[in-house]
Design a protein that fits this description.
The protein starts with a strand and ends in a 10-residue tail after the last strand. Strand 1 (about 1-10) and strand 2 form a beta hairpin. By secondary structure, it is mainly beta. Strands 1, 2, 3, 4, 5, 6, 7, 8, 11, 12, 13 and 16 form a 12-stranded mixed beta sheet that branches. A 5-stranded mixed beta sheet has the order 9-19-18-14-15, with no helix packed on it. The protein is about 10% helix and about 40% strand. The protein contains 3 helices and 19 strands.
């Protein structure tokens, strides 16, 4: 059992609890309850920042394209984007599929939850600023170009499922070596590991806070592995991250989407 924090849909506060990351359950008043039987909300209170090209495979797939205009070389600093509040979604809620899209990319990522104001961190102190970790499905409309902000592809309503909880920092012994798996309709579609990160967790925090401040409650995504699997309306998606838990959602028609998470 592990220490974590979660938020119910009928509360604005995070609640501390003991959870099982293997059984995806929460211990409440001596009863172990599956997260599917608890009305969970998005446990994040701050801004969510995504990171592009931080898995070796995603950069390798680009090949010589990284040397083309406008960049002319591989990135020398983290490539960031924001998943704004309208994208926030929660465990068990529907992920809306836009009317003119047949498939969406399921972007499995480990989320680093910031515990206190972080600026100009060092490798030696970076982990002291981490409160814990969560699972994020960084949903995207499939697109090829990396040369312009992909707002219409990555920032649609409900395109950022988060949860089911924030596992305490000390419960995840080595965030740079955990397995990430994506299942669609219970079939394994993707498996990767954070040991394939170009910038491991501490290095990523150092490099990002060199040019911007991260605040308490913010979440920094380590990145999405290459070959993000596609899912369509009606598909059930489960993202498992070793030592953190499982995040489950079903894709629904956009017209039937009624909102995913509160703040």
């Amino acid at each position: 059992m592990n220490n974590a924090k979660f938020k119910r849909t009928d509360s604005r506060e995070l609640t501390s609890a003991v959870v099982s990351t293997e059984r995806n359950s929460i211990k409440l008043e001596d009863n172990e309850i599956n997260v599917s039987d608890i009305p969970l909300d998005n446990p994040v209170t701050g801004t969510v920042y995504g990171t592009l090209l931080n898995f070796r495979g995603t950069l390798e797939r680009l090949g010589d394209a990284v040397n083309d205009k406008p960049y002319l070389s591989p990135p020398v600093a983290p490539v960031l984007y924001i998943k704004p509040a309208n994208t926030f979604n929660r465990y068990g809620a529907g992920i809306p599929v836009p009317e003119n899209e047949s498939n969406l990319e399921m972007g499995a990522s480990l989320g680093i939850v910031i515990g206190k104001t972080a600026v100009a961190l060092t490798k030696e102190t970076a982990m002291d600023y981490v409160a814990g970790y969560t699972i994020v499905n960084d949903v995207s409309v499939p697109h090829a170009s990396l040369f312009r902000p992909a707002v219409q592809h990555k920032c649609r309503d409900g395109f950022c499922s988060i949860g089911p909880w924030i596992i305490d920092r000390d419960e995840l012994k080595n965030p740079d070596d955990v397995i990430i798996r994506v299942y669609i309709n219970d079939e394994l579609k993707q498996e990767n590991s954070t040991n394939n990160l170009i910038r491991p967790v501490a290095r990523l925090l150092v490099d990002v806070t060199e040019f911007m401040t991260l605040s308490q409650g913010d979440v920094l995504l380590v990145g999405v592995p290459e070959n993000a699997p596609l899912a369509k309306t009606g598909d059930k998606v489960r993202i498992e991250i070793e030592g953190v838990g499982s995040l489950e959602n079903v894709l629904v028609d956009e017209q039937s989407f009624s909102g995913g998470a509160t703040q």
